[in-house]
């Protein structure tokens, strides 16, 4: 048995051509398009580098070594690899015959220190009033979906939101690949597993979710819903498991609930569409939208409440905070601010009953909107 530290060092030696990027805290993604074409992302902007692996075989050897490190098979008969480096960086790799021009690799790097709410506020990705509202919503065990496009910061925002979970709660985290870094003392981390080379041993997110319901969770956090587990999550949200959180690839509130519908229909349960839509509307309380702006910055762009579903009228939403954009500032950076619209959440009475306060700016915006209607 090779000692773990020795295995990790030898693994990183295989990736020597890109090692400097893996050690650079400013690099958030490394993209390898064949052995001699490497790009990196810094501050949301892509840059081509001069880094290169010697041959296609050198790159494949590095990826096979990584597959061995995480206990997964990677080869022509299974050309897709989902893995992670010892520091937690997420790796997605595709090789021939699925990749025509040589192995393609995307390495999503994560900060060694979790992104905090304070840091989000500092960089302008979130406002203090919006953060105070989200803290109250999490404390009240509202079900929250973080939505956005690829590389918009969904996982980072979900991780930051989890800091509002009380320390005396039992939290179960289910992920395809471990990314979240919850700081609570009572966290159970579960990770889906692919099948082996013989097609055995697979454990899906859905199977883990069903098992979780029997493990006395106070909260369930799903890194991302991608398939039929969406129906299990929706049904758990509507059957007493409050405070669930997850992420979804979608850009608008309607897209979020439509996406959940589509994923739920991928389950083996036949459910009338009108009944499914009523459940989705009842399950999801709030949607936090994230986006990567044209200048490369990532931020929260909107906080919306799912009000309900009404037959021909469809889903109804209320926006609580929306990002307003100004002219660009220095360096071409977008100048914007996340502002309240004067609408209070329907759980306001619950927030007050728990001894919590809504942000004063929300109440002030509420009064201004009342005055404008008079």
Brief digest:
This protein is α/β, with parallel strands linked by helices. The chain has helices spanning 4-14, 19-22, 56-70, 117-122, 128-139, 154-161, 205-212, 229-237, 253-264, 273-283, 348-353, 360-373, and strands at residues 27-33, 38-42, 45-48, 80-84, 90-94, 104-108, 144-148, 171-175, 187-191, 219-222, 245-249, 286-292, 298-310, 314-325, 336-340. A hairpin with a 3-residue loop joins strand 13 and strand 14.
Task: Walk me through what this model shows.
By secondary structure, this protein is α/β, with parallel strands linked by helices. It folds into 2 domains: 4-108, Beta-Lactamase (2-Layer Sandwich), CATH 3.30.450.90; 117-373, P-loop containing nucleotide triphosphate hydrolases (Rossmann fold). 31% of the residues lie in helices and 25% in strands. The protein contains 12 helices and 15 strands. It has helices at 4-14, 19-22, 56-70, 117-122, 128-139, 154-161, 205-212, 229-237, 253-264, 273-283, 348-353, 360-373, and strands at residues 27-33, 38-42, 45-48, 80-84, 90-94, 104-108, 144-148, 171-175, 187-191, 219-222, 245-249, 286-292, 298-310, 314-325, 336-340. The protein has a 9-stranded mixed sheet, with helices on both faces. The chain has a 6-stranded antiparallel sheet with strand order 3-2-1-6-5-4, with helices on one face. Helix 7 (205-212) packs parallel to helix 8 and helix 8 packs across helix 9 (253-264). The longest helix is centred in the first third of the chain and has 15 residues, at 56-70. The radius of gyration is 22 Å and the shape is globular. The chain starts with a helix and ends with a helix. The mean pLDDT is 90.
């Amino acid at each position: 048995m090779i000692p773990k530290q020795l295995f990790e060092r030898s693994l990183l030696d295989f990736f020597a051509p890109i090692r400097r990027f893996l050690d650079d805290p400013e690099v958030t993604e490394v993209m390898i398009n064949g052995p001699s074409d490497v790009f990196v992302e810094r501050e949301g902007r892509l840059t081509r580098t001069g880094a290169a692996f010697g041959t296609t075989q050198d790159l494949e050897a590095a990826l096979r070594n990584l597959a061995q490190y995480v206990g997964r098979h990677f080869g022509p008969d299974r050309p897709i690899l989902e893995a992670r480096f010892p520091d937690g960086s997420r790796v997605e790799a595709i090789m021939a015959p699925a990749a025509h021009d040589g192995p393609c690799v995307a390495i999503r790097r994560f900060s060694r220190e979790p992104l905090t709410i304070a840091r989000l506020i500092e960089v302008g990705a979130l406002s203090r009033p919006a953060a105070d509202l989200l803290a109250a919503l999490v404390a009240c065990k509202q079900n929250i979906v973080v939505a956005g496009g690829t590389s918009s910061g969904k996982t980072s925002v979900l991780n930051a939101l989890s800091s509002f979970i009380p320390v005396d709660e039992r939290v179960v985290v289910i992920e395809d690949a471990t990314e979240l870094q919850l700081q609570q003392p009572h966290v159970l981390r579960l990770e889906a597993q692919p099948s082996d080379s013989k097609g055995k041993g697979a454990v899906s997110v859905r199977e883990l979710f069903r098992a979780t319901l029997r493990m006395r969770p106070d909260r369930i956090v799903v890194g991302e819903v991608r398939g039929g587990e969406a129906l299990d999550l929706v049904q758990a949200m509507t059957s007493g498991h409050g405070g669930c959180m997850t992420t979804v690839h979608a850009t608008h509130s309607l897209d979020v609930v439509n996406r959940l519908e589509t994923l739920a229909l991928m389950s083996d349960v036949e459910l009338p569409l009108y009944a499914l839509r009523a459940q989705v509307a009842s399950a999801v309380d709030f949607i936090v939208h994230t986006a990567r702006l044209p200048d490369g910055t990532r931020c929260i762009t909107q906080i919306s409440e799912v009000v309900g579903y009404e037959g021909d009228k469809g889903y109804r939403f209320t926006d609580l905070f929306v990002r307003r954009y100004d002219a660009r500032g220095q360096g071409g950076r977008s100048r914007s601010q996340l502002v309240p619209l004067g609408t209070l959440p329907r759980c306001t009475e619950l927030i007050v009953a728990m001894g919590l306060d809504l942000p004063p700016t929300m109440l002030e915006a509420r009064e201004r909107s009342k005055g404008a209607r008079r």
